[in-house]
Amino acid sequence: MSKIPVSFDLNGSEVGEIIDSGTTLLSLLRNKLALTATKSGCNQGTCGACTVLIDGAPQLSCLVLAARCEGKAVTTLEGVVENGELHPLQRAFMNGFAAQCGFCTPGMIMAAKALLDRNPTPDRDEVVDAISGNICRCTGYEPIIDAILSAAAEMRGGKRKSA
Amino acid sequence: MSLALHAAQSPREACSRIAKREARLLAGGTLLVSEINNEQTATSVLVDLGPLNLRGIKITGTQATIGAMTTMADIAAHPKLKFLKPVAEAIGGPAVRNMATVGGNLHAETPYGDLGVALLALDAKVTLEMAKQRKTLSLEDFFAQRAKLAAYVLTAVSFTLPGANSFFFVKAIRRKPVSASVITIAAHLPVKGKKLAHPRIALGAMAPHPVRAKAAEKALDGKALDEATIAAAAAVATEDCAPQTDPYASAWYRREIAPVHLARLLQQAAGKKS
Predict the structure, then answer these.
(1) A13 bridge partner residues
(2) B61 CB contacts (<8 Å, ≥6 apart)?
(3) Of A20, A84, B92, B177, which is the most buried if we count CB atoms within 10 A?
(4) Cβ contact A20–B73 (<8 Å)
């Protein structure tokens, strides 16, 4: 067993922890830091429920060794809320009934946020590509895609682009 | 779990660490960490290749050299590698593509390894750093010897950029938009006059590692890409294959559809060239 220190920016604040060197980022977030928005779906990198942003880019936290986050900026769903206000994506998912059981939702929102942060005017195909690594068993995906397009339109302050 | 993580200090130093069986190189982690999570490996030591600065794409004239830690996302985004964009984007989703590396893809077990299929059709070469020497191998030789080589770190892959309208790729999958391959085909079809000159056809998910369909290549070489030639190539599509049964497709099914997908890809190529 080897214990190592790791420190990185998590949702805007620095965290420093002593961890086993084999600890995944997902395990650190959920089990040590009690940040349970990020979900463990398959632990294999196939479902996307564990998606977080590392330096703004989506990655699968079940496959990331926490040690490799040293010095990076990690964003989870908990960090998407700002000053107590829900992000437009969160509101769009709520209002559009884009979450049923909700298990895929954090991963979907993080994948969508990564898209909208770099492309504020995605078309439907681009939204589908952005969530192509996230599996949903409940909604059939359409309400999720609609919610992301709605959120994009709201963030632009204009009318939603036709689907 | 009890896992030690070492930052590699140099490719040779990493080689000396992985000379022990329980130690393995860690690139993107999309395959290896999954195995560890699911207790499918006895690995207890990981050697992190991250610190070795092996990520990068260098293009000089028509020569491309890609570092082994370059990600699929890097490749998909590169303005001079547009022909590889559909290949990189056929692999995983956006998150996987931000993590998965070229080097990792060349070590993936079938049916994975789609970038390796494309690189094989491009006659790529790989550079290996070993304990006491540096070796350059054709990718074809590397795949054949992969299981038997002494400890090495694959540091880079290089190839000549294909001419316009000469590189074609298809990955047949059952579940859209992304899934592991039923069959992957990459074709490099240079022409001289109106005849194919040294065509290359590489197949994925049709053998334990990506392979060249040499009988099909022979049927195409020196010929015009017409209906008869395409049919002749498709007829021998599976001659150099040993497909396996896995959750994505059976060996039987792969043999059945290989000629169909090869013919379609060649027809698509013929359409682009005429």
Answers:
(1) A10
(2) none
(3) B92
(4) no
Tell me which chain B residue has its CA closest to the CA of residue A53. B95
Q: Would you write out chain A's pLDDT as a tens digit for each of its 163 residues?
A: 589 999 999 999 999 999 999 999 999 999 999 999 999 999 999 999 999 999 999 999 999 999 999 999 999 999 999 889 999 999 999 999 999 999 999 999 999 999 999 999 999 999 999 999 999 999 999 999 999 999 999 999 855 544 4
CA B252 to chain centre: 23
First-to-final CA distance of chain B: 59
Using CA atoms, how far apart are residues B106 and B111, in angstroms rounded to an integer?
12
Q: Where are the alpha helices (DSSP H) in chain A?
A: 25-27, 88-95, 105-118, 124-130, 142-156
Counted residue by residue, chain B has a size of 274
- B24/B12 Cα distance (integer angstroms): 14
CA distance B46 to A28: 18
Contact A52, A74 (CB under 8 A): yes
Residues of A in contact with B38 (CB under 8 A): 43-44
The C-alpha atoms of residue A61 and residue B95 are separated, in whole angstroms, by 10
For residue B118, count other CB atoms closer than 10 A to its CB. Answer: 31
Contact yes or no for A71/B61 (Cβ under 8 A): no
Read off the tokens for B157. Answer: 């892959």
- Which amino acid does the sequence have at B89? E
* C-alpha span between B65 and A17 (Å, rounded): 39
* B78/chain A closest Cα distance in angstroms: 17
| Residue whose structure tokens are 């190529």 | B269
Two tokens at B217? 């290549």
Whole-angstrom distance, CA of residue A99 vs CA of residue A72:
30
Distance CA B6, CA B17 (A): 9
**CB A148, CB A131: distance < 8 Å:** yes
- Tokens 């942003």 correspond to what residue? A53
What six digits make up the tokens of B113? Answer: 């390894």
Centre a 10 Å sphere on the Cβ of residue B227 and count the other Cβ atoms it contains. Answer: 11
- B177: cis peptide before it, omega within 30°? yes
Interface list for A 33-92 with B (CB within 8 A): 43-45, 48, 51, 54, 57-60, 62-65, 67-68
Q: What is the pLDDT of residue B21?
A: 80
